[in-house]
Amino acid sequence: MTTTADRSCMIASDPRTLVNPETFGKLVDYFAADRHVTRSYAEQAVEQFLAFLKAHADNPNFGMPLPDGSIGRVVPTLPVDAVWHSVLQHTVPYAAACEQIAGGFVHHIPILTEGMMDGTALTFTLAALHATGYRVDMRFWRGEAESCCPPTPPQPGGGN
């Protein structure tokens, strides 16, 4: 009698392969310089940002209906959003990464949703990240998804 284990073993792909090496290197350089982090940390953070862009591109309608009736949205955590803010300042390699991953420019539209506050958006995001088939480093995805902008920012001339 022969016994076999029926296990599916999926090896996640390296997120840096989502872009060409030149684009990856430039994004890492800009993030490391902007945030004063080590190159090793910058490489890991940029990898997770690229996986985030892929998950975003794979969910063009901002995802699926969630149990509360809202629509799931792929959202960054603060460490991943920090990469986004840094690389947005360097539009040539950022636009190249967007083109290579999403087929066009991915705009940063900061909002605060109920799903971000109650954790459902991060749950959806993690599922979307894993669905890409690229490596997900949970050190960058712990915590809460937060808006990088306050829900009621001070208005010009408003004295806030």
Percentage of residues in strands: under 5%
Average of the residue pLDDT scores: 81
Q: Describe the oligomeric state of these chains in a short phrase.
A: single chain
In angstroms, what is the radius of gyration?
18 Å
- Strand elements, count: 0
Question: How many helices?
Answer: 6
Distance, first to last CA: 77 Å
3D architecture notes:
This protein is mainly α and 160 residues long. The protein contains six helices and no strands. It has helices spanning 21-35, 39-58, 78-88, 91-102, 114-118, 120-131. Helix 2 crosses helix 3 (78-88) and helix 2 (39-58) crosses helix 6. The termini are far apart. Mean pLDDT is 81; it is low at 1-8 and 150-155.
Quick recap of the structure?
The protein is 47% helix and 0% strand.
Jot down its keywords.
160 residues; mainly alpha; 6 helices; disordered N terminus
List the helices and strands and how they pair.
Elements: H1 21-35, H2 39-58, H3 78-88, H4 91-102, H5 114-118, H6 120-131
Helix pairs in contact: 1-2, 1-3, 1-4, 2-3, 2-4, 2-6
